[in-house]
């Protein structure tokens, strides 16, 4: 069993720290945000991630998992040091590497023994080399270290299960022995390990995210065509996905992708490509189509209620960027709600877990305690995030509460025929001609 240090305790850092301690390793996690650190030390999780809190509690109790802001203490015995700090969208579209640089500096300053520095943050190609240079500048010259890129592929909402059942572990380094040592750490997971060079590993992460985002924009473009031509994109995706070469995943049309990864990573890859003299036209189209998907949703509401949304009461179901997380970063709900408010509409909203975080992004919204409260006096209900509990609503009750029974389904959660039979004017995304006469 090994002694591991994890720098940063966001979605990736906390999952990494908690799960590696659960595998029997000793893990010290460093967090510089004092409020987060206090929560973590008291055994609580600063994020909503199914299954993670229970594991955190168990491993803290066993003494294998600790949280600190003290680099010297956390690194004293560590032979493996993970960097998992944030790489948010910079003003120019490039990834902001300030957290990575600061972490590398601190690691260099506190390195007292041979260690492997493993970069799990999503970073532009070439960053691993830069991290090595920064550490070398600050570390004692007699201390050996190696840098390994180990991009993280977990999804929020299923982070624990993704950690224990990864499709692959990618390791990139100029130091093969170091990459193999990190591979050994992952042995209990029984996953396929791909060892490559540092820059290629960094690129694999961006290419993977950009490809998944491309599938989503592709199906959203097909959805738009389906709307005009009277085809059903859900059936189209089912038919396409049955082809093994295509596969069924990431073909759900809707209001587009959000979250802390796809928007920033597609943009960062675009920036990387353009800076290197390439012309990344597909990536540009992926981003344009994604923004259009949000805009078209608001346009659709105007078609449903009339151009003037001033004073209209709009109910929103779901705020987080996807179900099973409270993460609001780049959530489509924020853009859509801001556009509605800009047009003078009043907005009420409910989300099972994200309300507290959502209030930081869209404070002028009236937040409700249930989906039924959202429906009261609403001129239209918008389904933005497909939480499980929205599958089982009492539609009679909802209809009786609403001023007019209009439903816009941004995730194609409901069956159009059933909703119409229940007496709603219902439009999904890409499910036939969406311009019937209102109320018909
Ligand atoms: N969120 C995801 O699902 C996910 C999945 C795969 C990869 N990634 C990538 O992993 C990285 C981390 O993402 P996240 O969502 O966990 O980030 P996050 O922003 O939620 O968390 C980063 C944490 O690091 C802490 N931190 C910053 N600088 C520090 C320092 N010098 N020392 C110690 N702690 C420090 C911050 O206080 C914060 O708690 C990003 O590069 C992201 O693109 C994220
Ligand atoms: O068919 C689909 C699938 C997803 N989405 C949307 O795409 C976004 C991202 O979804 P998902 O990929 O499930 O969530 P993330 O937690 O952001 O995970 C992505 O981003 C992480 C951070 O890089 C990677 O580690 C993961 O592999 C990658 O799936 C969400 O807004 C979803 O609603 C769709 O619109 N249609």
TrEMBL record:
Its EC number is 1.1.1.22. Residues 315-416 form the UDP-glucose/GDP-mannose dehydrogenase C-terminal domain. It catalyses: UDP-alpha-D-glucose + 2 NAD(+) + H2O = UDP-alpha-D-glucuronate + 2 NADH + 3 H(+). Substrate binds at residues 153-156, 205, 250-254, 258, 322. The active site is at 261 (nucleophile). It holds the Pfam family UDPG_MGDP_dh. It is an enzyme of class 1 (oxidoreductase). Keywords: NAD, Oxidoreductase. NAD(+) binds at residues 36, 87, 122, 156, 264, 329. It comes from the Bacteria. GO terms for biological process: polysaccharide biosynthetic process; UDP-glucuronate biosynthetic process. Pathway: Nucleotide-sugar biosynthesis; UDP-alpha-D-glucuronate biosynthesis; UDP-alpha-D-glucuronate from UDP-alpha-D-glucose: step 1/1. GO terms for molecular function: NAD binding; UDP-glucose 6-dehydrogenase activity. Belongs to the UDP-glucose/GDP-mannose dehydrogenase family. This is UDP-glucose 6-dehydrogenase. It comes from Oscillochloris trichoides DG-6.
